User: What shape does this take?
Amino acid sequence: MIELFESNLIDQDLLTQGDRVVLGVSGGPDSMAMLDMFLKIREKWRLSLFVVHINHGFRGEFAERDAKSVQKYCEDNRIEFIRFDYNVQDLAKTWKMSFEEAGRIVRYEAFEKTRYDVGAQRIAVAQNKNDQAETILMRLMRGTGIDGLKGIPQKRGPYIIRPVLFMKRADIEAYCRINEVPVCHDHTNDETVYTRNKIRHDLLPFIEDNFNGQIVDGLYRLGSMIQTDVAFIESALDKWLQESQVCLEELDVLPVSKVQKLDIALLTRLIRRILMLKGMGLKDVSFAQIDEVVSLVQSNSHGKKKFLSGVEFSTQYDNLYYRRLSDGNRKMIMSEVNIDVQIVEMNEEAFSLYTLNENEISIDLDKIDGVLSVRFRKDGDRFQPMGMRGTKKLKKFFIDLKIPAEKRDQIPLVCDESGIIWVVGHRLSERVKVDESTCRVGIIKCSDSC
Assistant: This one.
């Protein structure tokens, strides 16, 4: 099993020797098996491991038992154990979402905070092959397109990896028994009041017993094949945009005659790409709504308009225009230096589906004092690094990070009128972090040259 685990890490390019890895560990078989496997390769791969355990404030003494079990295992194996406690039920009510959605948000918030604090290159979470099958079935029943049938990727964004996704739940449980890995049982996973649990305990076993005993493997293969197909379609669109010298981020118009020549699969993908770049994303956007925009392009009727996900599409004199309905939610930050920094405002729903890139951070816009600006350091600069209670001299912060003196004057600082809020590429200020009280999230993006 360890050999397969290592081979998958290499084949899927999930890890590099010497990486610092944050592991989400609940105490169940999946995450404990993942942790044990990482332990077995820790010395060979020269890894630094950090375990994050989250108490969702839901299972009382059972949750406390799980936390203590994971903590003891970490102490016995010289791994740093980091615990977070949330009242997810209250947060779900406040945020007006399901318990599962709120739990997902706080989990990834805890993972990201820890990754930032310890300077990790990866966040490892422990979904398995059965989780993949359940996800695809659940999306299929709700109604989804090709992107939904991709299921869960083994790697998402620059940090998140799922190194046991290729393993069946039964094989993982067998691994824990054979290797005497201590595991905890979460009784809420047995309750069929949740859709996923109904699929897990009722639907999949019924299909296996009556139709296809290998349905889990079949759905996993389906997800993998569709991921490959979607990647090909995306690359074909990228190639067309490059050959046509079109930059969707900078332009807001395309010749209809050129767009009409696109295959319908690429045209649909182009509209989706515009919605992601210019609008509020693809959540709750249906196939029928995108098809209406496709029809608009194909008919090329002068003066016709369609509104979708915060974007106005219109055709005028053989041109397709796509315009953000509210240009005020994306703006440049005042800059004293020649650096491109933008801020995008998101609502809670959009942020819950968003994955930060390496050159982005999230802030609570209501905690900002006055106008934002970008500058380089000045004598006497201080700020409150995320995770710290008090402030720290910027010079001491750079020294602790072992940043050479000659490079310190080249690091941009995003500031408000009360001081530094982001040392670009290094640390956010505790003062402006997103938390459970946040209503308006700002995504600050720095150009790759930062």
